[in-house]
Specification:
Number of domains: 1
Distance between the termini: 21 Å
CATH topology: Rossmann fold
Binding site for ATP: 3-7, 132-140
Helix content: 10-25%
Strand order of the largest sheet: 3-2-1-6-9-10-11
Binding site for substrate: 50, 55
Radius of gyration: 15 Å
GO molecular function: 5-formyltetrahydrofolate cyclo-ligase activity; ATP binding; metal ion binding
CATH architecture: 3-Layer(aba) Sandwich
Largest sheet: 7 strands, mixed
Number of helices: 4
Enzyme class: ligase
Shape: globular
Cofactor: Mg(2+)
Strand content: 15-25%
Number of strands: 11
Structural class: alpha/beta
């Protein structure tokens, strides 16, 4: 299947997920993350879930990061430049949904991409080679291309890996790991 067909497939699969299943799977994903040796960094980029898209609920991961006293960085979509701007999450950070219902910081302390050690990456699907399919706008690929070369990229998925994607582009940046409710994939 090509990326367009896979996007449709996984969006349709998500539609059937109940809030209870999303919570259960999201908690299992957070617990499976604890198996990884990725907790030595200082700055962790975490997307805030789009409830309307039935994404992995990252609230459990946020609690892990806060419990480990990590600096949590959250993105805001820069539509004009097709990029992400990253802000430190603090007690005073105001969150507002944008036009795509993405919860984002209104403003705050901007963190350069080069400071980030680990990125939790949203996705619709991924393959056994570590390639991911997002919503198709390329925000994360562009953001990751501006990060330091040794940044750790961790995908979060309710579903297991596809065999291999047909249409991988040179600008597609592969993951280092992908975590599902059942398994941790290492690439």
């Amino acid at each position: 299947m090509n990326k367009t067909d896979l996007r449709k497939k996984y969006k349709a699969l998500r539609i059937d997920l109940s809030p209870e299943v999303i919570e259960e799977y999201s908690l299992k994903i957070a617990n499976n993350l604890l198996q990884l040796d990725v907790w030595e960094g200082d700055f962790y980029h975490l997307f805030l879930s789009i409830a309307e898209q039935k994404e992995v609920d990252t609230e459990f991961i946020l609690h892990i990061l806060q419990g480990k006293d990590k600096n949590v960085v959250i993105p805001r979509t820069d539509i004009e430049h097709n990029n992400l701007i990253n802000y430190l999450l603090t007690e005073t950070t105001k969150i507002k949904k944008n036009r795509w219902n993405i919860p984002e910081p209104v403003d705050g302390i901007e963190i350069p991409s080069a400071k980030i050690d680990v990125v939790f990456v949203p996705l619709l699907a991924f393959d056994k080679n570590g390639h991911r399919i997002g919503y198709g706008k390329g925000y994360y690929d562009k953001f990751l291309s501006n990060c330091k070369p040794n940044i750790i990229k961790i995908g979060l998925s309710f579903y297991e890996a596809e065999e291999a994607f047909q249409d991988v582009y040179p600008s597609d940046i592969p993951l280092d790991y992908c975590v599902t409710p059942k398994k941790v994939y290492r690439f």
